[in-house]
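Minutes, project check-in
Item: structure for the 141-residue chain
Input as provided by the requester:
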Amino acid sequence: MKFLFLSILSALLLSASSVDSQVKILEKVISEISLNKQITIWSDDKDILSKIKNHKKFTTTNNCEEATFVILKDKKYLSRVCDDTHIFVLNYKLLSDIPKSFGALFWKKGRPNIVILESRIKKQDIRITKNLEPYLEDKVW
């Protein structure tokens, strides 16, 4: 199952630009996540936020304070007002730097990697589908 998911993601990468590919992967991951509330997305990457907004699969916001789900590229954009959100990062190192973050999408050796920390999704009451189970990790490497 993990190989199939990565194959689909790799095909997406070959067919679109890097931001488009990143957005497609993020949309797939987010669609496999369930929170106890509606998902409203904010990102510090305006290109990603714009493309997610254009796809109209999710509700987006221009204010971190209104978001329930944050896609973060740089921790300097994470304000204390946004501390009550679910944080998904775009850099593996941020998983260590931001203890509230529960998962990451990052590139390594030219391929997308997804990591979801099992202890953090349990603590934040985030449910994932079986499609994301192969990406569960016990801790940050």
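Outcome recorded: The beta strands are 33-34, 40-43, 59-60, 69-72, 86-89, 101-108, 111-117, 127-128, 136-137.
No further action items on this chain.
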